[in-house]
Amino acid sequence: MKPKKVLLLGATLDSDNRGIGALAMGALSILLHRYPGCEISFVDYDRERRTTAVNMNGQDLSVPLINLRFSWKPWLANNIALLLMLAALSRLLGPALGSRLVHGNPWLKQIREADIAVAVSGGDSFSDIYGLGRFFYMTLPQLLMILMRRPLVLLPQTIGPMRSRLAVGLARYIISHSRVSYSRDIDGVGSTIKLLHLGRSSGKVRFCYDMGFLLEPRRPGAAGVHALREFTDLSRPLVGVNVSGLLHMGGYTRSNMFSLKCDYRTLIEELLEFLIDAKQANVVLVPHVFGAASESDIPAIEEVYAKAQGRYAGRLARVTQTLDQSEIKYVIGQCELFIGSRMHACIAALSQAVPAVSIAYSQKFVGVLGSVGAGHWVADPRTLRIEEVLRMVEQALGNRERIRSELQASMPGVKREVLNVLAAVA
């Protein structure tokens, strides 16, 4: 049988956000498990075509990019608006003329040749919570697949919330015309059906755990684990703390965008004091979004470290090397407890049976982490005071062995279910 040609939308391996990388790797694992030998292409926005080399379980893959443009230049042959117009016109013209139109455009031709498309939507961007621009950025390629009559599956992701009627209407159209859409939040199945007015018996929306649980850790080089060797007393428990650059700067608006009840910077300062002084722990500061963008975790961690290193010398370290999603997961896996403000940093911990307390800024944390029994370890600073967050951390630290045992028992089943999420899809 000829290998299937598969398109992967909404996640690549070149993002500075290691959560996106974890989702992309999870999606690749799922596709190779369901369609052995398949030919996979990324579909994403970029000025240039490129090919990504990746090793999956000892297998070297070359994944080309079908590069779209989200641009005000309508004359670009790969402009998403132009491609949508041509795809719609090809349907109106009928099979013969429509086929000629499609084959005259290299991007549409590649899409037409695919057997199936799967979409990740960046994990949480099938929503207008970040604005309509971000929502269209993610969903227009999915609409293009439908107009091109390619079978579409929405892999496990957060669906919603949606405030605008336009977003609700487009989301309903996409999900209604997809083979199946997976929510990574158990409660998200019912809320999606209700929000988009879908028939409950349609089976269009189902639950599956987050794909980040599938990512395998990989030990980085010596420089990558240097931070773990800086502590003077290795008998202390090692706690990883992920500082979010997004929350540290106050959200994209820089003015407490997520309506936190407590100041995030103060929370991190008091968390370090509590862990290092009160609980006699070693703390390693762990980024999960790299790069130079304003929301990168790196500047936030450097600021926190510069302010605290004198007080906590030999007890506080930070990751300084740029690590990929598998390498940073290895570092997280060395901790006895992990406290993270990036959801996929917490998933990296839980999937390795490391107890994790999540510092949440959206409802997605409770839904996704609650699916694996960690919902009661989500500390939401939108509703909790600093002392309440610290109390939760103290409880998790004191019960870490029990939590680890529970995770060790449940994780194999979680990973098995995610890996087989496409079993029912032809």
What does this structure look like?
This protein is of the alpha/beta class and 426 residues long. The chain folds into two domains: 5-208, Rossmann fold (3-Layer(aba) Sandwich), CATH 3.40.50; 222-412, 3-Layer(aba) Sandwich (Rossmann fold). Helices cover 41% and strands 16% of the residues. The strands form two sheets. An eight-stranded mixed beta sheet has the order 3-4-2-1-5-6-7-8, with helices on both faces. α2 packs parallel to α5 and α5 (132-147) packs parallel to α6 (165-176).
Query: Which parts are unreliable, with pLDDT below 50 for 5 consecutive residues or more?
Result: none
Q: Work out the strand percent.
A: 15-25%
Structural class designation: alpha/beta
Kindly provide the name of the CATH class of the largest domain. Answer: Alpha Beta
Helix content: 40-55%
Quote the CATH topology of the largest domain. Rossmann fold
Average of pLDDT: 93
Main sheet overview = 8 strands, mixed
Strand arrangement, largest sheet? 3-4-2-1-5-6-7-8
> How many discrete structural domains?
2
The N- and C-terminal alpha carbons lie at a distance of 14 Å
CATH architecture descriptor text of the largest domain: 3-Layer(aba) Sandwich
Number of strands: 14
Rough outline: elongated
Count helical runs. 15
CA-atom Rg in angstroms: 22 Å
SSE string: EHEEEHHHEHEHEHEEHHEHEHEHEHEHH
List keywords for this structure.
426 residues; alpha/beta; Rossmann fold; 2 domains; eight-stranded mixed β-sheet; six-stranded parallel β-sheet; 15 helices
